[in-house]
Amino acid sequence: QVQLVDSGGGLVQPGGSLRLSCAASGSIASINAMGWYRQAPGEERELVATETTGGLTIYADSVKGRATISRGNAKNTVYLQMNNLKSEDTAVYYCRAEIRGWRTWEYWGQGTQVTVSS
Fold first, then answer.
1. Which residues contact 86 (CB under 8 A, 6 or more apart)?
2. Percentage of the chain with pLDDT > 90?
3. What is the distance between the alpha carbons of residues 14 and 10, in angstroms, rounded to a whole number?
4. Which of 20, 53, 102, 104 is most buried, taking the most CB atoms under 10 A from its CB?
């Protein structure tokens, strides 16, 4: 079992920046990947960025060049730095952790609201 607590959202003006944080507890040694997803009202949840334990990163096209995902030294934290925020970045952002074995287990944070508005 993995528990995730994400934080760092808020109201940001267009062009601004913010940093989201996610702390994992529990079976953190088994985590293969951690990342961020987001869900805007009326939309499906979508990938923002993810990073595997081996360091492979994947970004959504919509955030490439504006977002940076990173893991903490203890590997139980993941951060998402987002710059040049746009109104279309407004969404609830969720941290996700993945454990792969004979099946894939996924765990989610509670979500943190990011609102980009002037």
1. 14, 116
2. 81
3. 13
4. 20
pLDDT digits (tens, 9 = 90+) for 45-58: 999 999 988 889 99
Give the chain as a 3 state SS string.
CEEEEEECCEEECCCCCEEEEEEEEECHHHCCEEEEEEECCCCCCEEEEEEECCCCEEECCCCCCCEEEEECCCCCEEEEEECCCCHHHCEEEEEEEEEECCCEEEEECCCEEEEECC
Question: Both tokens of residue 45?
Answer: 């949840």
Q: Return the closest-CA partner of residue 114 out of 7, 2, 10, 43.
A: 10
- Cα separation, 93 vs 114, whole angstroms: 7
